[in-house]
Structure formats: structure tokens, C-alpha cells
Amino acid sequence: MTTTPSFNSWVICPQPNPQANLRLFCFPYAGGNSAIFRTWPNNLPSNVEVCAVEYPGRGRQIKSAPLTRLESLVEAIAPILMPYLDKPFAFFGHSMGGLVSFELTHLLRSQYSLAPFHLFISARRAPQIPPTKPPLHILSDADLLTELRTLNGTPKAVLESAELMQMFLPILRADFAVLETYIYTQKQPLECPITVFGGLQDQEVNHEELQAWQEQTIAAFSLHEFNSDHFFIHSQQELLLKLISQELQMRQRH
């Protein structure tokens, strides 16, 4: 019998489940942490162990400096995940997490000959589509705050607390740097199915940018869109987890 590896500040399993025969690794959005996925095990099949990845600079990794390049982040995560990849596994990433999980999938394939059986990408444009907006990570604190208000992902109480923003802004700036300095290099398409989720009112990502993920796999592709904005991961969580559960249960039957 395999068990969940012992304490690790990078990987947080909110409800350890040694009996599980599948692991779902979850990657947060910019500025987010593993707590986003705290309640997910309650709404997923009982044979699935949820493992949330904690980026440096927050949560249990509060003492580590946040990383500012996607390559460094993915190269740091891969060896840490290795002890957990003794069972079939899938990746879910929202926004920044979608890009992290995609590049991590490529790294695992090239360096370890491993692959998730399914990739769930949420609220992130396909990697081959270049950015159209000017970078945020180089803005002054005041300008960055203004942008955050329009993005609608940061609680009002946090935005209005100078003390909390002092802690939060450097993490967010680092995460935006990860995204905004990313340069896509074309690789062979993946062999795992990709399911993409989007919000119909998302100002950050449109339908075409979500659909373009289809080019990244030679396996099955599906796209689901919710009646919500960029943060449907919260507002439509029940429906999102239902769709993920259906895919994971299909895997169970194969």
C-alpha cells in the first residue's frame, strides 16, 4: 500500500487519503495559495486525493522568497512532486496555475517520462497566444492597486488594509512577473486529454483563447464555459467540481 509522503511545505493535502487511487494536484492563481482548494475533497470522488501546490512566499512557504520566472518555479516543483507520482495523477490549474501545470506537464514528460492522465486548465489563454496587455509587475504599488480593484479577485478588506497589502503586493508582483516574462516555445503536443474551463464574463480571457488549447493535445479536448467572471473557481465551484468529478470517474471506469 502506498501512503501520502510525510510533511512537505510545497504540497498540502487538505484531507490525506491513503486509500485513494488517483491524485489531483491543484495549482493556484496569481496571489493565491493552497487554501483555495481546502474544501475540494468534500465534492470530489472518494478515490481521489486532492494535493494543493503551495508556491513560495505564502502559506506554509511564507518564509521562502517568491519566484519570478516560470521556468524556475516549474523546475523547483517537479522533483518535489516525484514521491507523489506513484499513482495515476491529474493536474488542475486556475489562471496562472493553468500555465504552471501546462509547463510542468512538459517538463515531467521530457525529464521523467511521466504524464498526468488529464490536464484541467481554468481561466487561462492558450500558451501560444501572446499577451496583449502591458505588464503589471513593473507598475508602482499605487498603480498595481488600481489594477487589482478592476480585476475583482482580491477581497475588498484586503485591498483596504495597508498592512495586508504590504504582505500581499510583493507576492502578487512576483506572480505577475512569472506570467509576464513567460516566453512560449513550441513543443510536441501532449498525449493527455485537456479539459478547459472559462467564464463568459471573463475580461481576461475570451472564448477563442480558451479554444486554442485544443492545439496543445493529440488526445480528447473539451471546453466548458460558466456564466461568471474570471473567478468562477469560487462563484461556480459546485458546478466546476461536478464536471471535474465526471472526468475523474470516467478515468476510473477505463
Protein traits:
254 residues, alpha/beta, Rossmann fold, seven-stranded mixed sheet, 15% strand, globular
Molecular structure report:
By secondary structure, this protein is an alpha/beta fold. The protein has a single domain (11-130, 188-253), classed as Alpha/Beta hydrolase fold, catalytic domain (Rossmann fold, 3-Layer(aba) Sandwich). Helices cover 35% and strands 15% of the residues. The chain contains 8 helices and 7 strands; from the N terminus they run E-E-E-H-E-H-E-H-H-H-E-H-E-H-H. The chain has helices at residues 70-81, 96-112, 141-151, 156-159, 162-180, 207-211, 232-235, 237-253, and strands spanning 11-12, 22-27, 48-53, 89-94, 118-122, 194-199, 221-226. It has a 7-stranded mixed β-sheet with strand order 1-3-2-4-5-6-7, with helices on both faces. Helix 6 (207-211) links the parallel strand 6 (194-199) and strand 7 (221-226). Helix 1 crosses helix 2 (96-112). The radius of gyration is 17 Å and the shape is globular.
Outline of the structure:
This protein has 8 helices and 7 strands. By secondary structure, it is of the alpha/beta class. It has a 7-stranded mixed sheet, with helices on both faces.
- End-to-end distance, in Å? 21 Å
Radius of gyration: 17 Å
Summed up, the helix count is 8
Mean pLDDT: 91
Spatial ordering of strands, largest sheet: 1-3-2-4-5-6-7
Into which percentage range does the β-strand content fall?
Answer: 5-15%
CATH architecture: 3-Layer(aba) Sandwich
The total tally of domains equals 1
- Give the biggest sheet: 7 strands, mixed
CATH homologous superfamily identity:
Alpha/Beta hydrolase fold, catalytic domain
In N-to-C order, the SSE pattern is: EEEHEHEHHHEHEHH
Shape: globular
**CATH topology heading:** Rossmann fold
Low-pLDDT stretches are none
**What structural class should be given to the helix and strand makeup?**
alpha/beta
